[in-house]
Design a protein that fits this description.
The chain is mainly alpha-helical. Helix 2 crosses helix 7 and helix 4 packs parallel to helix 5. The radius of gyration is 27 Å and the shape is elongated. About 20% of the residues are buried.
């Protein structure tokens, strides 16, 4: 891992703000989901009801092997080769293959983290959010297995008849005012006000 210089000023403030958004509850939900799908503990012997925490969760996911195996459970064969070597290039390649498989699975790119966010631990919050988004996408794709998060909404178009559409044109919306009650008839703007003693 590259050594990052300690941030000062605005960069340090941004880093602290990103770190403060990390939610151990969301991490625990993602961890439980991954363990159920893979059928093994991410950290052997660790208490399953206690969150791993920012640093340990990062170490578990950093080489990308768990993520690639996760994608192969959701969609078999989506990651052809998982690199087992603990070399930085191969670990980053695993993460990149996972992200490519996520895109092919239907996860929008704006819901995905960047490789450096996980590999260099710059934004673990985004990594957890990506796992939750992947869980929603799996439900949307009809995956029959453990689920993570709420189900994504479906497209539900409405079709109205011509008579119903014409009927709606006769109604005056309240934002446009009303045609009943008091009105501004007789008021004039711009005239000077006469004050008589």
């Amino acid at each position: 891992m590259a050594t990052r210089p300690r941030g000062y000023g605005l960069s340090a403030e941004i880093h602290r703000k990103i770190q403060s958004k990390y939610d151990v509850t969301l991490e625990q939900e993602a961890r439980t989901w991954i363990e159920q799908l893979l059928g093994e503990e991410l950290v052997p012997g660790a208490d399953p009801s206690t969150p791993l925490g920012h640093d340990t969760f990062h170490e578990v996911l950093r080489d990308g092997q768990v993520l690639c195996r996760l994608m192969n459970v959701l969609k078999p064969g989506s990651v052809k080769k998982v690199n087992r070597q603990k070399v930085n290039f191969f670990m980053m390649e695993n993460i990149g293959k996972f992200l490519e498989a996520c895109t092919a699975y239907g996860l929008p790119p704006n819901d995905q983290f960047h490789t450096a966010a996980l590999f260099e631990r710059t934004n673990m919050t985004q990594v957890v959010n990506t796992l939750h988004a992947l869980g929603r996408t799996a439900q949307k794709n009809g995956f029959q297995g453990p689920s993570l998060g709420v189900k994504e909404s479906q497209h539900n178009p409405r079709h109205f008849s011509e008579d119903k559409l014409r009927e709606g044109q006769t109604i005056i919306g309240l934002q446009m005012g009303s045609n009943k009650g008091a009105n501004q008839q007789g008021m004039s703007f711009g005239k000077s006000r006469h004050i008589v003693d």
